[in-house]
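Dear Dr. H.,

I hope your travels went smoothly. While you were away I took the liberty of generating a structure for the chain from your last submission, since the lab meeting agenda had it listed for discussion. I wanted you to have the full record in hand beforehand rather than looking at slides cold. The sequence, exactly as received, is reproduced here:
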Amino acid sequence: MRIGIFDPYLDDLGGGEKYMVSIAEILSLHHNVDIFWENIEDLKKIAERFSLDISKISLKENIFSEKYPSYKRYLETLKYDVIIALSDGSIPIVLSKKLFIHFQQPFPAIKPSFKNSLKKIRVNAFFCNSYFTKSFVDKEFGIKSIVIYPPVNIKSKNERQENIILNVGRFRVKDVTTRVKGGEAAIGDYKKQGVMVNAFQDLVNKGLKNWKLVIATSINEDEKEIFEDFRKAAKNYPIEFLVNKNNDELWEIYSKAKIYWHASGAGEDLENNPEYAEHFGISTVEAMGAGAVPVVINAGGQKEIVEDEKNGFLWNNIEELEKITLELINSPKLLTKLSKEALAVSKNFSKEKFSNEINNLILQ
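The corresponding predicted structure, in token form, is as follows:
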């Protein structure tokens, strides 16, 4: 089969891009796979960051760009047996034999329309990255989607665990200014690194010793100045920032951490803005696969990964985050028990399972 894949955010390094290129990698083993995008360097960055094999994938002109005439896109898509597209809130019109639409997040601004109803007729299946995403897009688009969890390829290294609390996530700024102990910086960030820095500073101020917080993040060029202000505001505390590390380097720090923090969605109105929560949580699964105990916000896709008090902890406010963390630090036996449970659960999100589900999807 000839398969075309489109991701409108391929110049990003997010979980959605890993998801879509993973689909391309898997399908390229037995099919001719094209990705609609002009810049090969964007694809190479994703492949390097997430250790993906793109050797059998071809790059084609982005027929979904606004500069590309609609009639040419229709004619070009006639050549394909299957097209798989990541939705940006819209449903493309194509003439391939089959069309599959993937959702990575809710789109609360989308309202039902007659135009979308017509577009849906051509879609063979809608699929989401989590039941959290599904719960919103099914209502927003009037569909019945299926859930295919992202693949998490565990590459834990044989490292001795240290007294490290870890968070891994991109640094993405919102247009909000919030205060950080030691200074002020515009860090109304989607991943809530500022919230976690504040919480850790509070623990240290209350007497926590011999532990450090590590924030592993990637930064866009246009946000470097803001990030540096953020980093300066966290100085004089045992807080370390790892910036733009590759996949192997990230697995080194995953393998050393004892506790994993996640806070996306903290302080947000998630009823009206569900897109601010973590839609799934690949980094949480990766951390669990390295033996770190997850202490994550009780929101979004995190609740589908972590079972409270079984393989980690869910928290609802900063006070709970700090209390649970101290409980783990002061109870090595509990930390060890939950670490083993977390490791076992991480295996539920294997690349093999993802591959089987994607192949079954396009063959339906």
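Two observations you may find useful: The longest helix spans residues 332-346. Confidence is low (pLDDT under 50) at residues 176-187.

With kind regards,
E. W.
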